Amino acid sequence: MYCNNCGKKIEKNTKFCQFCGTKQKHEKMDNESFSEEKDEKISEAFTNEEKKNSQQISEEKTISKWNNFNIWASLFGLIYYFYKGLWKKGLLLTSILLLVISFISFFVATNSFWLLAIILHIILFGYMANIDIKRKEEK
C-alpha cells in the first residue's frame, strides 16, 4: 500500500503515514473502478508498444532505403532484366536512358559524357530493379 499524499510505501491498513503524517483513506475498490484502472493500464501499455513499433518501422525504412539498390542490375542492366523475365521493363528503361543521354549530350563535353552515361545507367537500373521485381511478385 502507498501513501495518498507522499506516495511512499506504507504498511497495509495503517491510519497515518509514518513519513508525512497524512491520514490515509482506505477505500475498497469496487469492480467498476478496478476495471477502469485496469483499462487505463492496458491502454498505456498499448500506446507504449505502438511507439516502439513506429520507431522500429522508421528504422527499418531507413535501412531498407539502402537495401533497395541492386548491384547486379546496376552492373548488367538490360541483361539482368531479361534474366528476371522483365524484358519489357528493361527495354523501356534502356530507351529512357538513351533518350536522357542523347538530350544531355548537347550540354556536356564528350570527355565527361561517357562517365555521366555510366553513372545514370548504374543509378537507374540499380534502384529500379528491386522495385520492379517486387511488383512482379505481387502480381
Q: Could you please describe the fold and organization of this structure?
A:
Helices cover 69% and strands 0% of the residues. The model has no long low-confidence stretch (mean pLDDT 77). The chain is rod-shaped, with a radius of gyration of 32 Å. The chain has helices spanning 31-67, 71-76, 78-83, 87-104, 110-138. It contains five helices and no strands. The protein is mainly α.
User: Mean pLDDT, as a whole number?
Assistant: 77
Number of strands: 0
The tally of helices reads 5
Helix content: 55-70%
Report strand %. under 5%
Estimate the global geometry from the Cα principal axes.
rod-shaped
Low-confidence parts: none
> Structural class of the helices, strands and pairings?
mainly alpha
Main sheet summary: none
- How far do the termini sit from each other? 60 Å
**Could you spell the SSE succession in H and E letters?**
HHHHH
Write down the Rg. Answer: 32 Å
How would you summarize what this structure contains?
The protein has 139 residues and is an all-alpha fold.
Task: Summarize the SSE layout with pairings.
Blueprint lengths: L30 H37 L3 H6 L1 H6 L3 H18 L5 H29 L1
Helix pairs in contact: 4-5
